[in-house]
Amino acid sequence: MGTMTRRERLLASIRGEPVDRPPVCFYELNGLDQDPTDPDPFNIYADPSWQPVLELTRERTDRIVMRHVPIRNAPPDPLADRRTVETWEDENGSRCCRTTLKAASRTLTSLTRRDRDTDTVWTIEHLLKDADDLAAWLDLPETPWGGEPDIAGVLATEQALGDSGIVMLDTSDALCRAAALFDLGTYTVLALTEPELFHRLMERCQRQVQPQVEAVARALPGRLWRIYGPEYAGEPYLPPHRFRELVVPYDRPLVDAIHRHGGYARIHAHGRLKKVLEAITETGCMGLDPVEPPPQGDVALAWVREHYGKQFTLFGNLEMSELATLPTDRFRARAAEAVKDGTSGTGRGFVLMPTACHCSRQVPDRVTANYQALVETVGA
What we know:
Low-confidence stretches: none
Shape: globular
Number of strands: 13
Number of domains: 2
Mean pLDDT: 97
Strand content: 15-25%
CATH architecture of the largest domain: Alpha-Beta Barrel
Strand order of the largest sheet: 1-8-9-10-11-12-13
Largest sheet: 7 strands, parallel
Helix content: 25-40%
CATH topology of the largest domain: TIM Barrel
């Protein structure tokens, strides 16, 4: 087999076709969205230590660029006059955002913070604190679905990528939207003790996400998708039977819509998978990431490949903690092990990938060397 373009290699791996070598991807890093010239003080990629990693990403990885598709001409937000948003920088220079929402006699508030040296938004306070908050939120008017997907950004990204990679459309599922309204402890308690109330919440969230996925899949057929949120129902948060109840009936229609328009649906789920893999297969998805190794996960990549490789193209399975802390010779051995296990026997395909990406302003030399080892492992 001759040398494939990076785009050809990714598409073949997703389709389960032969490839000249396994693709390698740095997950959120794509060398396109990380702009070292952006003067924003929150732009961590302006630091010179990022430049070798970004060049490596652009020149030698099989780039998968995540995109969320906005909706234009959407109906007016019925909650606009009930919501206020305040942003400011605190004494440490962090960017804070408080949202206040009036719900009957209750005032619901959330607070997020973005630090200058970390490319992450932290939720300091979640909007809903208890079952009474949830009941009040559910009584608020719903935003009716409407509008059209604005696909210009995706098409422009694909043109910029050329043969160096592909776009992956990105969507949360109903569970992600529901669970993210609470802190993790409150969510798990409510999901277990208030099943009827939580079911109402899931149905409301599904009424928003389902038509949007349908519309985008129709407007942008044949693309790879990532559906994130199922991990909220994984162990140790909820028992396996609740995973099936909260994921399969809601994610399967999303997968069906994507596949009906020639796309490829990939489920994103960190953590323990062994007892929920059968439920994940019931969604009909064709891809799974990041297949975390023990002890973060509970199942070996080789085992998943052996038992589920014919349905799933697998993406992973190197922990970000390994990339950040292992000496490069040990990390190189881990990457080689992942390639061997991810391509063993027969299956759809395997993409070598860390479970996340470095997100701090300074990139240590070890992290740069380990990113370099990743591409060398597959001969990129």
